[in-house]
Amino acid sequence: MSESVKAFNDYRAKMNDKILADNNKIIKRIFNLDTNAYAEGALDVKTKELLGLVASAVLRCDDCIKYHLETSYKIGLKKDEVVEALSIATLVGGTIVIPHLRRAYEFWDELEANHKTQ
After folding, report:
1. How many other C-beta atoms are found inside a 10 Å radius of the C-beta of residue 12?
2. Which long-range contacts (CB under 8 A, 24 or more apart) does 96-102 make?
3. pLDDT of 1 strictly over 80
4. Helical H runs in the chain?
């Protein structure tokens, strides 16, 4: 696994554990709501991940983009599907999204490289 993907996942897991250890009911409910929102429903999981990716890109949240890219990769979305979603995000969000688009491409390349080295 590339250092950047590993660092992202390790930090996210460490901090999520720390946050949830405080046992704040509101935060736990938000985490639970987030998890359940992406479960299979009227929309399939792949569609929901692409929606999450687009929203994250428009809102310019690099951590969220990475999370949705990795999940998209793990559930079998192809690069052309992800790129098409990111193109919509860039259209909606405008040119200010382009720096996040660059980092998204870089992270996707790392996910693909990790798969090739395993």
Report:
1. 14
2. 96/60, 97/57, 97/58, 97/60, 100/57, 100/60, 100/62, 100/65, 101/57
3. no
4. 3-21, 25-37, 45-58, 62-74, 79-93, 98-117
Domains of the chain: 3-117 (1.20.1290.10)
pTM of the prediction? Answer: 0.91
> In terms of C-beta distances under 8 Å and separation of at least 24 residues, what long-range contacts does 95-104 make, across chains too?
96/60, 97/57, 97/58, 97/60, 100/57, 100/60, 100/62, 100/65, 101/57, 103/62, 103/65, 104/57, 104/65, 104/66, 104/69
Average pLDDT of 9-28?
97
Place of tokens 């996910």: 111
Inter-CA distances, 15 with 3, 22, 35, 43, 48, Å: 18, 11, 17, 30, 24
Q: Which residue did the predictor score with more confidence, 91 or 116?
A: 91
